[in-house]
Amino acid sequence: MIEDKAKESCGVVGIYGDPNAALKVYHALYTLQHRGQESAGIVVSDGKKIQSKKGLGLITDVFDDDDLNRLPGHIGVGHVRYSTTGSGRVQNIQPLIMEHIDGLVVVAHNGNLVNARTLRRQYQESGSIFQTSTDSEIVAHLLADPCRRNRADRFESALGILKGAFSFVLMTEKKLIAARDPQGFRPLCMGKMGDALVFVSETCALDILGAEYIRDVNPGEVITVDENGMKSTSFANGNKHAHCIFEHSYFARPDSVIFG
Which entry of 2, 37, 45, 54 is 20 to 30 Å from 73 by CA? Predict the structure, then answer.
């Protein structure tokens, strides 16, 4: 059973192209702390090696200067998690780091996947082993599935199976991927900070970084950033929007621009 979920108001951050990505992710997460106070995590890559630090509590409780100095890399993903009763399992702290035959994949998720329980059961019956009780982990299993491992549209194919509300920031050793559900329930925006690209749940995190807001990630869009630049693809028709009203009234900071 899925005992726990990444709740609706988690905060996600992704940065590509900044030599001190961990520090920038930290500052962005600090600004998004209102979206989750249960746990925090940062994962970085220098293009060859992925390193992480995660823990329960506020971001200032989890990280100090030494931690950030021990996380070198130009690609970074961060997550702050919504506080819920009885869900303080260390295994569930995001970003999740999952290993499969092609290497590591890092998953940071904001939202709820309504078909995760069904998909989880299918994979478990075929012998897959899950390490957490969150719905977010199903993404790693979809990506590792032999039916799509060698497909050029691997990420699009996996995300297209999911149903529900989600904004994802995913990372491999060399890539950063941002994606948003086809109806745009959960917010996710993109900014530019010098030569770096930044993806955050709210524009207030761009402000603290001094990043320029570019646009929202479109519903049903997948944006991939690597050494070759940025590529945008779609995994679903995003013409029917259903934005979450609670972002306006409860989740988001009043100084953030939400859904335009």
Answer: 37
User: How many Å apart are CA 195 and CA 124, to the nearest integer?
Assistant: 43
Pair of tokens at residue 244: 């979450």
DSSP state of 211: P
**CA angle (239 as vertex; 236, 240 as ends), nearest 5:** 100
Catalytic residue among 10, 189, 204, 244: 10
Residue 248: other Cβ atoms inside 10 A? 13
pLDDT tens figures, 41-87: 999 999 999 999 999 999 999 999 999 999 999 999 999 998 553 35
pLDDT one-digit tens code per residue, 134-158 = 899 999 999 888 888 788 888 899 9
Compute the C-alpha angle 234/145/96, nearest 5°.
Answer: 80
CB atoms within 10 A of CB 208: 14
Residue 7, C-beta contacts closer than 8 angstroms, at least 6 positions apart:
36, 81, 82, 84, 112
- In three-state secondary structure terms, 64 is coil
Contact 76, 87 (CB under 8 A): no
Helix (H) or strand (E) holding 196: strand 196-200
Give the contacts of 249 (CB within 8 A, at least 6 positions apart): none
Give the model confidence (pLDDT) of 146-196 as tens digits. Answer: 888 788 888 899 999 999 999 999 999 999 999 999 999 999 999 999 999
AA letter at 121: R
Question: Is 10 among the catalytic positions?
Answer: yes
Cβ neighbour number for residue 129 with a 10 Å cutoff: 7
